[in-house]
Amino acid sequence: MSGDILSQSEIDALLSALSTGEMDADELKKEEETKKIKVYDFKRALRFSKDQIRSLTRLHENFARLLTTYFSAQLRTYVQISVASVDQIPYEEFIRSIPNMTILNVFEVPPLVGRILMEVNPNVAYAMMDRMLGGQGTSMNKVENLTEIETKIMSNMFERAIEYYPEAWANIAEISPLLTDFEVNPQFLQMVSPNETVVVISLNTTVGEATGMINICIPHVVLEPIIPKLSVHYWMQTSEKKERKAGELESLETRIKKANIPVVVELGGSTITIEDFLLLSAGDVIELKQSITDPLQVKIGEIPKFIAQPGKLNNKLAIQILDSLKGGDNDDE
């Protein structure tokens, strides 16, 4: 009765029974407090938490946006792709839910073990192919009669589309999707055992006037090594690490800008013998190899970086930078 909506007459009868003592409110409360039994289907084991499903949803919302941009540019028509649902079901149930003849792209995602499946509704796939061939995007369904050219066009189109998958997964794992199989009959495709739990991400897809679904099926065995990374806590930690790293880089850059470094301007150089050096005294003159018309070399620390000309500024000796030196480690530059 808890799941039914009472009519006004039933409500009046219930209140009347309580007021006359025919029903005891305490007994009703005890029945409410009795432990309820929840039915659990062992054939449909839930192996992912709600938190992990939410993470997969966010991941594929990003992928849907990338696909929308890609197909809009390729097909030159209105394309809209969005996440409709994310469910965990047995593989057998997923296979039964898709059309008998449809477009099936099977991908490996190394370094993760196993394969994922992208199922594209024929209405959407044919509209895409029609646009690729210069048509208006007319939708039709003749999957069982696909020619070799049509098969090649479709497989190439979805193989390029999956290249955006690693970008969507960047915060979770580094993957390299690779198309390994192209099928049209799901009965000929057995990726995992029938009772294996899979996550099915359904994408609402609109191409021009054609609409349909793109389903991405990911078996549990593929996600098993990275399940801990699918938690909100991990995403928050990753975000905090990025913010902390950005803050550290900014702080380091600020400190470097405030660091003091010696700037030395060389008026010239000369070479003398040890004997002449030992005989030097006040008033002696050493001839420099550099002419007074030649530019001066400016060193930052020990490294030559600029050439300049001498002068005065506010009655103080100064230099004016003329050019920068490329390479900088060679004194001859």
Automatic annotation (TrEMBL):
InterPro entries: CheC-like_sf, Flag_FliM, FliN-like_C, SpoA-like_sf. It is a peripheral membrane protein. It holds the Pfam family FliMN_C. It comes from the Bacteria. Residues 255-323 form the Flagellar motor switch protein FliN-like C-terminal domain. Keywords: Bacterial flagellum, Cell membrane, Cell projection, Chemotaxis, Cilium, Flagellar rotation, Flagellum, Membrane. It is found in: Bacterial flagellum basal body; Cell membrane. The keyword Cell membrane applies. Transmembrane segments: none annotated. GO terms for cellular component: bacterial-type flagellum basal body; plasma membrane. The keyword Heme does not apply. One of its GO terms (biological process) is positive chemotaxis. This is Flagellar motor switch protein FliM. It comes from Oikeobacillus pervagus.
